[in-house]
């Protein structure tokens, strides 16, 4: 059996003396593993770095076998991704999110989102917002999508301010006021009616929102912890955004 696809390197593990097992996110076939012969060579090591985009050819006698990759470089962005903390942690954190999905389960929209985020990890505001949306997309693909489009109580699409921790649905400011202390905040940039960019407070609330539902629906039932890289990314993104914010905004 054989197929070709575009892929993004997620990680590698040593295999024998000279080979590696490469883990990639393909566009059409989801997260996939394969052996790369001579993957530890000087020529291949720079190619097999997380975040790089490659063309893979996979071969195996049977579909259920591990198989072997032949890899050709397309976009080598790994060196640039090592320049900022948001990028270093972001690549690792997104790889950990993709490992929550079944192997070989196609998610082309996540592949495309991963491409976009990798090209914007140097900008803390864009990186943080895109990462949150990536987490929401992964939650949705796992069957735990949030409904942030209208109020769960009234059906209104305006003045959405909260998210119910029970239902994962948005709640308007008026309807949620009696239970505000028990609600999760809905950041304005996730409200389609607001059309606002993420700021420090909104991004912090968004990180808490996705963390809550990932823990509740994914990590806790599976008996696992969130990847340490996520917290590293969160802190790096907020720190960089704070440093870039105008002083009058910080003192407001």
From TrEMBL:
<dbReference type="GO" id="GO:0006302">
    <property type="term" value="P:double-strand break repair"/>
</dbReference>
<comment type="function">
    <text>Involved in DNA repair and RecF pathway recombination.</text>
</comment>
<keyword id="KW-0233">DNA recombination</keyword>
<dbReference type="Pfam" id="PF11967">
    <property type="entry name" value="RecO_N"/>
</dbReference>
<dbReference type="InterPro" id="IPR012340">
    <property type="entry name" value="NA-bd_OB-fold"/>
</dbReference>
<feature type="domain" description="DNA replication/recombination mediator RecO N-terminal">
    <location>
        <begin position="1"/>
        <end position="70"/>
    </location>
</feature>
<dbReference type="Pfam" id="PF02565">
    <property type="entry name" value="RecO_C"/>
</dbReference>
<dbReference type="InterPro" id="IPR022572">
    <property type="entry name" value="DNA_rep/recomb_RecO_N"/>
</dbReference>
<dbReference type="InterPro" id="IPR003717">
    <property type="entry name" value="RecO"/>
</dbReference>
<comment type="similarity">
    <text>Belongs to the RecO family.</text>
</comment>
<dbReference type="GO" id="GO:0043590">
    <property type="term" value="C:bacterial nucleoid"/>
</dbReference>
<dbReference type="GO" id="GO:0006310">
    <property type="term" value="P:DNA recombination"/>
</dbReference>
<dbReference type="InterPro" id="IPR042242">
    <property type="entry name" value="RecO_C"/>
</dbReference>
<protein>
    <recommendedName>
        <fullName>DNA repair protein RecO</fullName>
    </recommendedName>
</protein>
<keyword id="KW-0227">DNA damage</keyword>
<keyword id="KW-0234">DNA repair</keyword>
<dbReference type="InterPro" id="IPR037278">
    <property type="entry name" value="ARFGAP/RecO"/>
</dbReference>
